[in-house]
Amino acid sequence: LMNARYNKSLAELISDDNKKRYSTAAPHRTNREYEIYAAIAKYMKLQYPSVLFRFDAAGLNLSRTQAGKNKAIQGDRGWPDFFLAKACKGYHGLVLEIKVEGKKLFKKDGVTPVDDHVKEQMEMLIRLQKDGYFTNFAFGTDDAIRIIDWYLGSAPVKKPNPVFESSWPVDGIIHPEFKGQGIIESKSKPE
Fold first, then answer.
1. pLDDT digits over 58-82, tens only?
2. I need a surface site. Which of 12, 40, 132, 169 has the fewest CB within 10 A?
3. Which long-range contacts (CB under 8 A, 24 or more apart) does 72-78 make?
4. How many angstroms separate the CA atoms of 164 and 168, rounded?
5. Within a 10 A sphere around the Cβ of 48, how many other Cβ atoms?
């Protein structure tokens, strides 16, 4: 049997060797948040092909130039990762801030956000709630899909989200469907 390496052209071999030698990314490092985005995108395309959705580029590993250009065209900081552009359940759309499974939002006191970035994200979700969007944090692919299915009315919510337990002071109430899961709904629904 021939080794697969011998079936490649010299140019391909050199290209492969150069990629290994000059790669700037650490081989063990993966962008877990991007993997979650990709899984959610695939799910949306298969299960809800007519529903419009979009991901923010902030979770991607952009070059300095790309990151600078992206920052220059953005509005406020803390913009959520996922936007689903379909009015349902009395909301204008669904907005999710996606986190890797097990990510903590609060310090040990259970009230203080772990850092300024998370605090900005919480504040942005509250602003969007007040403007009539259903917003939440989603911890991993399964959690995001569960919330999307609930929002679009395809599946009942059964499993609680134990990661998002807090008494962080927000202007809102817990949606009855998500009692004990940390999903916050603004007091007034859009008209």
1. 666 778 898 888 778 877 777 889 9
2. 169
3. 76/124, 77/120, 77/124, 78/117, 78/120, 78/121, 78/122, 78/123, 78/124
4. 10
5. 16
